[in-house]
Known about the structure:
The chain is of the alpha/beta class. It is built from 15 helices and six strands.
Amino acid sequence: MDPKDSLSRLKRGCISLVSEPELSKKLSSGRTLRVKLGVDPTSADLHLGHSVVLTKLRQFQDLGHTAVLIIGDFTAVVGDPSGRDATRPTLTAAEVKANAKTYQDQAFKILDKSKTELRFNSEWLTPFMRESLLDTLKRHTVQQVLAREDFKKRIAENSPISLLEVMYPLMQGYDSVAVKADIELGGNDQLTNLLMGRKMQVDAGQEPQVALTVPLLVGLDGEKKMSKSYGNSIALNDAPNDMFGKTMRVSDELMLQYYELLTEADLAAVKAAHPMKAKKALART
């Protein structure tokens, strides 16, 4: 595909792109790019909200690039503070291992396994914590980390922030250094972590990764983000009839966002179609 067409396809539905000229240059280089997605297996159940970023990663695979799927078996124990108003519950190593297995089974319903490099970040974060942590901490400031919106909100509400949470962005950033990522994908609550990866790659003498974020999918209620705990999700392991029935509950307004983020359908054709016909086609897809 022409690099301009590739860029247009990849920009569909994205929230932030740092930066578009850099992505265009990488796509035009003719190299097989390394596109990173890091996931912490904090839950055993994935839903369509999780599949938004997996679908974007599959688009890169379809364009001939390598997906680097990092299972955060180390960082899952720490807990990502992004978008959180409280510290995540601590998981045991056994829980993380079990969730990681389930996550892979579900993620490969979307990703091409033959074009995916699967890594576990304990591989490099265990020695990093022992050998390189102090030197890395000297390069970053407390102000830099606490400037995050989620931390500022919790400070204002006098809600605790653990020192482990403060260190989390450095761990995710080091993932990018370890796998030499050209591009990193994430939800729009992950931008701060992705930008930390860029800075740490420059510190390590690498070309900085492009950061591309996608929206958090709104759930079936049309209000809150999709989440099993909110009872508004469609699970990747739902039976086909259940998937179809749940999708038919989506409002006409929300249906277009689902088309944009979860499919590659022509949005103009969707808008021109009868809403019921379009919704049935979405549910079938």
